[in-house]
TrEMBL record:
Gene3D superfamilies on file: Spore Coat Polysaccharide Biosynthesis Protein SpsA, Chain A
Catalytic activity as recorded in UniProt: dTTP + alpha-D-glucose 1-phosphate + H(+) = dTDP-alpha-D-glucose + diphosphate
Keyword line: Magnesium, Metal-binding, Nucleotidyltransferase, Transferase
Listed cofactors: Mg(2+)
Keyword Transmembrane: no
EC code(s) of this entry: 2.7.7.24
UniProt family annotation: Belongs to the glucose-1-phosphate thymidylyltransferase family.
Designated name of the protein: Glucose-1-phosphate thymidylyltransferase
Amino acid sequence: MKGIVLAGGRATRLGPASRGTSKQLMHVYDKPLVYYPISTLIHARINEILIISSPDQLPLYEALLGDGSQWGCRFEYAVQAEPRGLADAFIVGADFIGGDKVALILGDNLFYGYGLGEQLQTHTDPKGAVVFGLWAHDPHRYGVLELDAEGRVVGIHEKPEDPPSNLMVPGLYFYDSSVVDRARSLAPSPRGEIEITDLNAGYLADGLLEVCRLPFSTDWFDVGTFDAMLDAQTWVAGQQRRKGLLIGSPEAAAHREGFIDTEQLHRLAEAADHGGDLAKSGYAERLLRILDLEGERF
């Protein structure tokens, strides 16, 4: 399975701080926001990843991330000339996807939970589409799943005034190889975008939509506002400082999933120690500290 990180958009809700940069390049505590979704894909053992962004912002991602080889990954880049909806990512990324299955994660979504990587790995061979259900106390702000008496999904509703359940759909989706053709067949919504909800509804109508319920303990942030960014910053800082973790680190994720070995991890940290910005920020030290947690799974 390949992966796509959609990192476009204008981030108007984060102005003026987002002027001159991309929202996903702004920091959440000690690392750029885009590191978090990349780490989620790596924990799912996906290491062929396409970064999609706007023409003016894409060079910034290339400068930050490179070709991904330092993390045992292969990164490619593609331009989304204008925001045309989440499902447009599959049209933009059609050549990258080829005939493979693909995961899409939104560049401003942060996921964390014990055993999350293993749970995602069990769904990387979908027979149709897999969406992830997460309990929310305010589901009307999101796409919401409607369930029948047996707990099967019978509908998906985008930001309903009267939510049929508390099970919302966060910004992570797994699809089979038919997703490109399905996305191309979608008509734009009234707001002129190719909607991910319409794509998922098509899979549901064909009996090909599976829902994976994430544990209630899963932490998730949609970092689209200043308040959400502050919440995410505070949460990451607290977890890392109290428990000695390094959340959302591609280096740590790549080591844990076997894409780089311990020697390579040491080399990355040592390169930072020799005058690099990672040493001055303390990131290199925290990177090496994760070796003490080698037996744990996150």
